């Protein structure tokens, strides 16, 4: 039990929680601002042509706001974790960003399927379901970032 408490009080986990929590608050604030003052509660219509192909898609305001905010918080989250939490990694930054994006994509899938499972299959309320799924994704994210994204090179030949 004492070893478990020592792990939970480690400096790295504290930095991870502060950086991740700060990035989450930034995400909420940006989402609120973009949704309410940029997208304007209107359906966003995308249409463009590439050669003989034309593409048209209507995007709801909440998804449009998400699409605008997501790349921003993906980048800020990566930079915070790289330069504040997991500073010991010697992998090339581009490789870390690719790995970080993969972990984020896994977490998006876990969120989607986890919410569908909890709400639609188990019949739980959406907010507690989101809380449970968030706990799962935080654990996946921490372990993925620590042991995959920001790991050290195993040999000198691996540079990227």
Characterize the structure shown.
With 160 residues, this protein is mainly α. The protein has two domains: 1-85, no CATH class; 88-153, no CATH class. It has helices at residues 2-8, 11-39, 61-85, 93-121, 126-149, and strands spanning 44-50, 53-59. It has a two-stranded antiparallel ribbon. The protein is globular and about 55 Å long. The mean pLDDT is 87.
Secondary structure: helix percent: over 70%
Number of helices: 5
* Overall pLDDT level: 87
The geometry reads as globular
Please state roughly what percent of the residues sit in beta strands, choosing from under 5%, 5-15%, 15-25%, 25-35%, 35-45% or over 45%.
5-15%
> Which ranges are low-confidence, i.e. pLDDT below 50, for 5 or more consecutive residues?
none
Give the class from helix and strand content and strand pairing.
Answer: mainly alpha
Biggest β-sheet: count, sense, barrel? Answer: 2 strands, antiparallel
Strand order of the largest sheet: 1-2
- What is the terminal separation in angstroms? 39 Å
According to DSSP, the number of beta strands is 2
C-alpha Rg (nearest Å): 19 Å
Order of helices and strands: HHEEHHH
Indicate how many domains the architecture comprises.
2
What descriptors fit this protein?
single chain, 160 residues, mainly alpha, 2 domains, two-stranded antiparallel ribbon, 5 helices, 2 strands
